[in-house]
């Protein structure tokens, strides 16, 4: 069920749905931060909120208490919200979906979102995600994706992901929308797995740049490029004095440079070996600090 709102979805102009979810699909918070960026700079107005009771384990995704004016307590529940915005100069609106990956009833969850999309007259959709990967923070962020057809992949210049394995709610929602006749593509930014802190502004910027191309809209980036520079400098400082970490990053740079010029070289890189080497490095570092 969804909470009622006086704004009729039918008033939206040929909306494009853009969605991101916290959790497994949101390494470095890059995907949900991208939605927040759009909400902020295009003055999005919330139109719907999904009732969370059927979808979340509140012992896993606990509600939080906020203080308003230092006195009044407000309870915030994990949920998924819908907001819309009208980008300047665009002939269509955006329906922005931002939420938390559910714990229960995934098929009902995506069916509810798909129903709202149908009611709003959504013409197409873009899923945003980010994942941990063997990539260097010093190199451009790889953004892969998937599309509803090979023609769409070619048109949007998507480097199709070869991933096979467990899926997150982002992929499940994309599959449901395509089944319902709503053309949908996904964008996935690769986040260096050796940087666990969030947010990752470099991955957010990469997602927004690719989203610009798909939407054919200029997205205001404001101070985001400046934050990317500061983030890179901070990570450089953190890793510069560690010889093993520096050597590991140099190896990732070599791999990144090879794949940027020869996509087939990716097959020659043993990602599992890289991850194992890094795990050994972390164990040695923790032992030394202990």
UniProtKB/TrEMBL annotation:
It comes from the Bacteria. It holds the Pfam family PAC2. This is PAC2 family protein. It comes from Gordonia defluvii. The lineage of its organism: Bacteria, Bacillati, Actinomycetota, Actinomycetes, Mycobacteriales.
